[in-house]
Amino acid sequence: MEDPFDSERASLPRNMIENSMFEEEPDVVDLAKDSTAFPALEPDEVVYEPHCSRLLVRGLGENDLDDEEDDYESSARLLGMSFMNRSSTHSPSSSPYNRQAPPRSCSRPSARMLVVGVFILVLVASMAMVLYFLPGCTFTKAGCGKANSSTPMEPAYPNSANGDLFPWNELRLPASVRPVNYDLSLTLNLTSMTFTGRTVINMTIQHNTKRIVLHSSELIITKATFQVGEDKSVEVKVLEYKPWQQIAVSFPEDLKAGQVCVLTLDYTANLSHTYDGFYNSSYNDKTGAKRVLAATQFEPQAARKAFPCFDEPAFKATFLVRITREPGYITLSNMPQAKTTTLPSGLLEDEFEQTSVNMSTYLVAFIVANFTSVTRNVSNTLVSVYSVPEKKEHTHYALDTASKLLQFYNTFFEIDYPLRKLDLVAIPDFLAGAMENWGLITFRETSLLVGNQSSPLDKQLIANVVAHELAHQWFGNLVTMRWWNDLWLNEGFATYWQYTSLMTEFPQLELGNSFLGVRFKAMAKDSVNSSHPVSESSQVTTPEQVSEMFDSVTYEKGASLLLMLNSTLPDGQFRKGLINYLNKGSNTVTEDLWNSLTQAQVLPQQESVSDMMRTWTLQKGFPLVTVSRKAGQVTLTQEHFLLSADNATYTSSLWHIPVTYVNDSCSSAPSCRQIFHLRNKTATLKVSDSVKWLKLNYMNTGFYIVHYGDEGWATLIDALKTDVNTLTPHDRASLIHNIFALSRLGRVSFRQVLSLLDYATNETETAPLTEALSQLSSVYRLLNKRQELRLVARMKAYVCSHFGQLMDSQDWGEEESVSRLELRSALLEMACSLGRQNCTDQAMALYDQWTNSNQTKQIPGDLQRVVFSVAAKSDLGWRSLMEAYSSSTYDSEKRKILQALASTQDPQIIVWILSAGLEGGIIQTQELPLVISTMSDGFAGHLFVWDFVKENWDRIIEKFPVGSYPIQSIIKSTTSQFSTQTHLEEVQGFFSSLKERGSQMRSVQEALETIELNQLWMDRNLPTLRHWL
Ligand SMILES: [Zn+2]
Strands 318-325 and 177-189: what pairing? Predict the structure, then answer.
């Protein structure tokens, strides 16, 4: 999946001060320590979990509904489950049942084990008592009641919707049954917005079991039949446990391993009114008539809202889809259409070919709409781009890009895209940026449609999203993470490839600067205590925890680590290793990737990929490398770069860092780069005495920050003042980024930061300049929100004295070079937002030309946002933009107009836009997060937005579920610029009052950490700023 805010990245502030202080809770009780404490379990109950090295034991005991023998097991379960539900934060422990697979035979316990066993028993019994006396047993009355009786505690099973005990009590499904094929028939009614379905699931029994448990949500099951082998099909009762979106069928006798069975379920449901499951959407066509359509969004866990299924990524199967629709629509699904039959009712039934590949449920997709398409044959695949009919002419760029990239990936991965067709579809109302459904990729219109005459920056955005989703057809679809804790194997790779493939195939799009920005962004997110490891080993089970994996650490840090690895390995190994990995197919864990890369080793004496990369993926955060030098002896020391408002926070994390460096005698060509492996806390590197300075982390391809010490920084600053080009532009940007980060950490003074920036008056390159502007504007915004008016004025004067000339010298005409466009828009957005006359005059002149020519005289795409924002400052301008917004069908332009409308400082308009966005209609609800983030940057907006979010929280999470990327974005944009104790307490109070409606989100912790850090930064730096600016 692509997050929808990529397009805003360039202009959004990278959160300047993110923050820290919530120590994770210690493990609750680790019953895993001694496997002999428990009897052996049925293999049915062993669910393969994240890390290949261990097994999670889920449901303890097969026939346990009537069992009384496993006392402490059931106590443990109750204990664990209750803890899971009570725990006020995400428990970092994997599970109380976590342990190695126990041997079936009894082994003689050692004395130590006995002691441990007795200790655990006592502990379990006493904690169970404590829990019993605590109010609010989460599970059934039966479960709680039992604990009260004199009999030993029984397994705590929840009650089904009909009152019967539900035969399963874990969020993860048992591994005893595997689906093989789904035969899915849906009949859609776009008038009543309902559908009926029949799902026929062919499955095999893996281990003897008396139950089949699968997912279903918001479906009304009307009939269920079950057939074993050649036996007669019989009607069966389906039990449902709604809180966990599961249904189950119980059997009196064991289903035997190896048996083949068929479960057939008939059901009805409403089309969803949110953005997931099988949902309805609408748009107005060019005549103004409302057109309806239905589309799907299943990732991560919404396939269960369209059909009952084993909705976990490792349960791969084949799918055959049939959809019945009214004439006047077309249907699309993952596979090509096989046939269409006219039914007696006059409705048409489209049948698609059965999928030729095994795939995870979250990749299934179907659409019923009146779209039209453009197509092209690429190798053996028919590539099509679909849109609403009136936007057909905006589909060509996507078709060209997809065709070229499909060929690139086919060749590079040495595995052809396996399906005969690949559709890219622009959906009018769609929440994610895009979704990689196999063979049927869905997009927001703004992520796919672009006119041929649009700005190269608009095209860059489309190409980015297309490249990301196409890469998923291999990384994600062909090879899928076993569970969501390793989501980075999908998203880190797709993000890595989106940049890498475009840099190779579309060099004119100049993706290098964006990719550098991605690394900086990932570091900001990962520098606080609430961050998490890329490969998450702690609990990722609830829907909220799964949703929260879709974040910057998974996407951007994942991609950054892959870049670091590729630039460390000898030529060819990375590609060869990835081809090995892809050929393994099916479902993987992170360790499989390292193994594949190790197998591809080309040199005999090489660093172990696994040893190195585990230090990066299994622990959160990243290192700070400090350099100190005595003549030819260079000492490198590493520590955790952790921003924390509490000095006592300390971690002993160590990384295996491939430190790269260049020196004054050879500093910019790739051949100058040398490498040193820093594995320990401290190590010494020898250089020639004549070396004047070292610059570490060449081109910033490594995921670490470097501190050169006072002397080291001074010599580097001198070198840059003498000759800017002594370092590459990315190295210059890296120095600017690092010194701001060090100032946040309190290791350098703001005076040193300004001293480095002095060189920038000679800077003309995009990467260092945009980095400097972004850092300065973050500081500016914070000061502005604190109403430090004198400092705000001085900061403005500082920016103008350093960059004013460059701002004024920008040309406002058409421009082709992407990196010049990136620089120009960054400079002018800053200039106009500071009210620099030259900028606002030019912007108004362009705006007048545009309106006077009836919008035929185009504003260059990269300048639209700045021009519209200036125009929106006046009442008249705002109103004419609002009209333009309502009539525009040109998506990228429309979005920029919306940002301008939302940048208003008029309180009444602010309130109106926010409610219009929540309502949907004039402003689509999918745009609400964008509206909120734009408003939060402005002074008037940010207070109103916070109130709005508080007051409308329940309606907001109806549209954007707790944990989802949009909600993460909303929390971040509304709170990340607070820097006072009052705001801290208010934010804390609000979120803790939400309880299960959001209080446990990681983004809430991050928000609180950020405010504390902002506060700390202000305390530390206001005096310096007053002195030095
Ligand atoms: Zn993705």
Answer: parallel
List CB contacts of 697: < 8 A, sequence separation 6 or more: 625, 659, 660, 661, 704, 706, 734
**Cβ contact 775:736 at 8 Å:** yes
Beta strand pairing call for 290-297 and 277-284: antiparallel
- pLDDT tens-digit series, residues 345-401: 999 999 999 999 999 999 999 999 999 999 999 999 999 999 999 999 999 999 999
pLDDT of residue 242: 96
d(CA 436, ligand 1 centre) in Å: 7
CA angle 377, 382, 384 (to 5 degrees): 105
Three-state DSSP state, 445: helix
> Among candidates 34, 65, 59, which has minimal Cα distance to 47?
59
Check residues 127 and 582 and name the one with the higher pLDDT. 582
Q: How far apart are CA 132 and CA 137, in angstroms?
A: 8
Residue 141 has pLDDT above 50, yes or no: no
Taking the C-alpha atoms of residue 879 and residue 870, their distance in angstroms, rounded to an integer, is 13
What number of helices (H) and strands (E) belong to the chain?
Answer: 30, 32
Q: What is the DSSP letter of 905?
A: -
- Assess whether pLDDT exceeds 90 at residue 83: no
Residue with the two structure tokens 């910057």: 552
Q: Measuring CA to CA, which residue among 166, 168, 90, 23 is closest to residue 546? A: 90
pLDDT tens digits along 944-963: 999 999 999 999 999 999 99
The H or E element containing residue 226 is strand 220-228
Percent of the chain with pLDDT over 70: 85
Give the C-alpha separation, 299 to 437, whole Å.
9
CA distance 296 to 303: 8
Which whole number is the average pLDDT over 275-291? 90
Give the whole-angstrom CA distance, residue 502 versus residue 887: 34
Tokens in use for 867?
């021009």
> Which one has a higher pLDDT value, 929 or 90?
929
**Ligand 1: centre distance to CA 276 (Å):** 16
Number of other CB atoms surrounding residue 358 within 10 Å: 18
Residue among 681, 533, 685, 684 at smallest CA distance from 94:
533
Tell me whether the omega of the peptide bond preceding residue 92 falls within 30 degrees of 0, making it cis. Answer: no
Residues 425 and 398 sit within 8 Å (Cβ to Cβ): no
φ, ψ for residue 688 (rounded to 5)? -70, 145
Rounded average pLDDT over 838-849: 97
User: What is the rounded distance in angstroms from the CA atom of residue 666 to the CA atom of residue 765?
Assistant: 20
Ion ligand 1 residues within 5 Å by Cβ: 1, 491, 494
Tell me the CA–centroid distance for residue 464 and ligand 1, in Å. 11
Entry pTM: 0.86
Residues forming the active site: 469
Copy the structure tokens of residue 500. 């890498």
Work out the average pLDDT over 799-811. Answer: 96
268 forms beta bridges with 196, 220
Centre of ligand 1 to C-alpha 741, Å, is: 28
* Nearest residue to 778 (alpha-carbon basis) of 10, 17, 6, 7: 17
Q: Which of 838, 787, 830 lies closest to 812, judged by CA?
A: 838
Quick one: how far is CA 43 from the chain centroid?
Answer: 34
- Using the mean position of ligand 1's atoms as its centre, give its distance from the Cα of residue 358 in Å: 19
Reported as a single tens digit per residue, the pLDDT across 471-488 is 999 999 999 999 999 999
66: tokens are: 């009537």
Using CA atoms, how far residue 370 sits from 274, 283, 316, 432, 667, in Å, is 21, 11, 31, 21, 58
DSSP element (H, E) containing 751 = helix 750-757
891, two tokens: 């998506």
Q: Which amino acid, 513? A: N
Residue with tokens 């299934």: 364
Count how many Cα atoms sit within 13 Å of the Cα of residue 620 in the half-sphere of its side chain: 23
Give me the pLDDT at residue 309, please: 98
